[in-house]
Design goal:
With 347 residues, the chain is an alpha/beta fold. It has two domains: 192 residues, Isopropylmalate Dehydrogenase (3-Layer(aba) Sandwich); 140 residues, Isopropylmalate Dehydrogenase (3-Layer(aba) Sandwich), CATH 3.40.718.10. The chain has twelve helices and twelve strands. Helix 8 packs parallel to helix 9 and helix 10 packs antiparallel against helix 11. The model has no long low-confidence stretch (mean pLDDT 98). It binds nicotinamide-adenine-dinucleotide, 3-isopropylmalic acid and manganese (II) ion (MN). The site of nicotinamide-adenine-dinucleotide has 21 residues, from helix 4.
């Protein structure tokens, strides 16, 4: 099996290196090929997603992705910004389904931004649509108004096929878990969301065994800190899912803990932490690599048919945490590679 390794920018290479060490320690038949992406690729090749990188991603069996984003590149025209690399990969590879699990670690309840007894119940899965919504809708751009004011505009849109395919995945996911699906939208205000809700309800007739509820996104943000344990599976659009998953990370304890899988219709996937390139701590050895290590576990489970190896990694992470391993974001002093060492030792 060929794994494309795209480390990217900032802490991306630091956390990807630790995930790679863990994968290499497993004694599986995996080959790794690295390619530049993001600001690093722009600086070396003039484009954040060079053709060679996209080609590698296309023919690899799975992709391990660090993070992209570089303050040096924030003034570039949008098409050349580092973030276009991850958006381009999602679009070009048809990675429409983003799974972002958030589960409490009993050892880490003290790191949660919530009271420990509230954080203890967290075990949810955010199923985020990843190739539509206001992220990709057109028209979008900048223009001048009639009175000469600068104006920026984007288009929020979904068609019914895009909604029903992610809704199905939400129902299927709920079916394998506790059987509860909460669809999050803003149907009280947005046409896009009303269509979303209508289609989710229509799709639900095929899943009578799943208990479906609907929630407006503002209420969902509130319920996520009030009683996160009440959620099982959340299905939502691209923008709302982006925001709610960062919020869920602090309910668990740190943004450095949450992994993700971005899957196409055939189950091929790109695996990355939900966090970004963290320019504020890049190069300092401070980043928590667990989100990326846990993303590697998701890769083994969802794309490589190695569920036992995935279990081993997840157990090793839990053992390291139970043994007191903590990076700075968790109130400790381990460096990125020392945290990697602790996971490897537990493995
Ligand atoms: P961020 O997730 O990079 O960082 C937010 C905060 O969390 C920072 O204080 C950072 O130090 C901390 N943090 C993030 N990951 C951490 C880790 N593993 N361990 C410890 N602390 C961690 O979000 P941001 O600052 O809004 O964005 C920075 C750049 O990353 C931007 O260019 C943004 O576009 C990009 N970004 C990329 C991705 C991606 O590649 N998928 C995701 C999110 C943001
Ligand atoms: C994420 C990131 C990306 C997103 C950005 C970098 C395009 O925030 O993966 O969560 O908004 O999807
Ligand atoms: Mn995000």
């Amino acid at each position: 099996m060929l794994i494309a390794v795209l480390p990217g920018d900032g802490i991306g290479p630091e956390v990807a290196a630790e995930a790679l060490r863990v994968l290499q320690a497993l004694d599986l038949d995996l080959t790794f090929e690295e390619a530049p992406v993001g600001g690093a690729a722009y600086k070396a090749h003039g484009h954040p997603l060079p053709p060679g990188t996209l080609d590698l991603a296309r023919h690899a069996d799975a992709i391990l992705f660090g993070a992209v984003g570089d303050p040096d590149c924030d003034a570039l025209e949008r098409a050349l910004r580092p973030e276009q690399a991850i958006l381009g990969l999602r679009r070009e590879l048809g990675l429409f389904a983003n799974l972002r699990p958030a589960k409490a670690f009993p050892e880490l309840l003290g790191a949660s931004a919530l009271k420990p007894e509230i954080a203890a119940g967290i075990d949810l899965m955010i199923v985020r649509e990843l190739t539509g919504d206001v992220y990709f809708g057109t028209p979008r751009g900048r223009r001048s108004t009639d009175v000469g004011l600068r104006e920026g505009y984007d288009t929020m849109r979904y068609d019914e096929a895009e909604v029903s395919r992610i809704a199905r995945l939400g129902f299927e996911t709920a079916r394998k878990r506790k059987g509860r699906l909460c669809s999050v939208d803003k149907a009280n205000v947005l046409e896009t969301s009303q269509l979303w809700r209508d289609v989710v309800i229509e799709t639900s007739t095929d899943y009578p065994d799943v208990a479906l509820t609907h929630m407006y996104v503002d209420n969902a943000a509130m319920q996520l800190v009030r009683d996160p344990g009440a959620f099982d599976v959340i299905v939502t659009g691209n923008l709302f899912g982006d925001i709610l998953s960062d919020q869920a990370s602090m309910c668990v304890g740190s943004i450095g803990l949450l992994p993700s899988a971005s899957l196409d219709a055939a189950g091929k996937g790109l695996y990355e932490p939900i966090h970004g390139s963290a320019p504020d701590i890049a190069g300092k050895g401070k980043a928590n690599p667990l989100a990326t290590i846990l993303s590697a576990a998701m890769m083994l489970r969802y794309s490589l048919g190695e569920p036992e190896a995935a279990d081993r990694i997840e157990k090793a992470v839990a053992t390291a945490l139970a043994g007191g391993a903590r990076t700075a974001d968790l109130g400790g002093s381990l460096s990125t590679s020392e945290m990697g060492d602790r996971v490897l030792a537990a493995l």
